[in-house]
Amino acid sequence: MMPMPRYGMPSSQSAFFRSTAIAILIGLAALVAIVAATLWLVGETHIYSDSLDRARQQRAAVAALHILILQAETSQRGYLLAGNESYLEPYDSAVAKIGPQLDRVRSMLTGADAAPTAGRLVATVDGVLAKLKETIDLARIDGRRDAAMALFSSNDERELMVDEQKAFLDLVAQADHNISQSVERQQIAISRLRFVIFGGALIIIAVTVGNAFVVLRYTRRLATAQREVQELNAGLEERVRERTSDLGRANEEVQRFAYIVTHDLRAPLVNIMGFTSELETSLAPVQAFIGRADETNDPVVKNARLAALEDLPEAIGFIRSSTRKMDGLINAILKLSREGRRTLKPEPVDLGTLLQAAVESVRHQIIDADGTVTIEGKVNPIISDKLALDQIFGNLLDNAVKYRDPARPLSIKIRIGKEYGRTISVAIEDNGRGIAKQDHERVFELFRRSGVQNQRGEGIGLAHVRAMVRNLGGDITLSSELGYGTTFKVILPKDLRTVTGAD
Fold first, then answer.
1. 492 with 384: CB under 8 angstroms?
2. Residue 475, SS3 per DSSP
3. Could you give the CA distance from residue 474 to residue 454 in angstroms, rounded to a whole number?
4. Global pTM?
5. How large is the C-alpha radius of gyration of the chain?
6. Would the CA dihedral through 462, 464, 469, 473 be positive or negative?
7. CA angle (18, 20, 21) in 5-degree steps
8. CA 175, 180, 186, 190: dihedral to nearest 10 degrees?
9. 307, containing H or E segment
10. Which residues face 423 on adjacent strands?
11. pLDDT 10s digits, 156-196
12. Is 402 within 8 Å of 455 (Cβ atoms)?
């Protein structure tokens, strides 16, 4: 026998699946980490962006307030120097805007760090506005421009302006610091995001390359194994053909042997049956003679009378029943032998029509049993041996009627369906007396029967059915429960020519 090649495929296959699963998990973990880190860094960037926006708005608001105060101071100086009332228009406009702008700046300066600065700014702005108003009122209302100029040139005015300038510079510096800090944090977050994306991409690329390498290596091994399997199959098909041919020849030998044996057994059986008839014929005058003999106490005569009138007829009856049974068994073996030697004839067969004809052949028995038969399903015509199919389904339907349960009306359901591949199935289900589980295989054996033997038969029906089904390239199975019914399922090829090799 050709040695089987050792591929080592199971361990290689498990290693492939394991490494692929690990690679997928690593890639998935890297992807989840990238997404999580990206979401977190995007959130941080959004926070820093809001902080930068607030710092810029704060700086702009402080600058706008400073400009308004400078506008008011410039207008005050122009009025004090020129004495022209028109110079006070910018002052009035600026003073009207300084209050709301100061409130806006103060609302922006929140937090413990900004509270002192906000308080100092408010105090400084209030002081500046008060001095400006005081000098303008001296010149406008009291007409004391000299006193107003002196107050404008005083040290208090200069110190107040210095404080004002310092307060604004501090606020602008603080806003610039906040802007710089927010920009720096944004840059850090962007750098981290870039690092996470780049690192994650490297991990995913590495996992993909590694997985591709594993797949390529496994594919090469698989291709090598397939080539070896193809080479093995080439020799295997030849060996299968040889074994099939040998099996066919052996089967033919078995069939010829069975035919010869049964033929040779029939000759002595015929002789036994003939001599039994002669013996029975010869016994009649002996019985008549014994019957006319006078009663006597002679033991010899009594024994002769007993033998002629009782023992010999009983023995002849046993011989006749045994020869009839043996004749039935020989006929059954001959029937199986002839069926095995019969050449199958593939032809188109409509299963629905064939099953309906099989039902009609037992219709009168079904009516006597107060039964019903239903046929479900439909398939396209198949190519098979019509005579064999007639015998198969005729036997199965006859069994369903023969072994019905007298306690309930007979019900037979025939289901036609498609199986996997190029096969069809026919299931015959009845509600008869059923078959015990231990007898499910036994009923297919030759001369074996199940249950109470209250029906005539030699026990060859199901053996004959299975032989014919297998001869057609199919199989038959049964499922049954004692007391509930039996279902026989016949699986047949759609085209018998694929089995026999016929055109």
1. yes
2. strand
3. 31
4. 0.43
5. 57
6. positive
7. 65
8. 170
9. none
10. 493
11. 555 666 666 666 776 777 777 777 777 777 778 777 777 77
12. yes
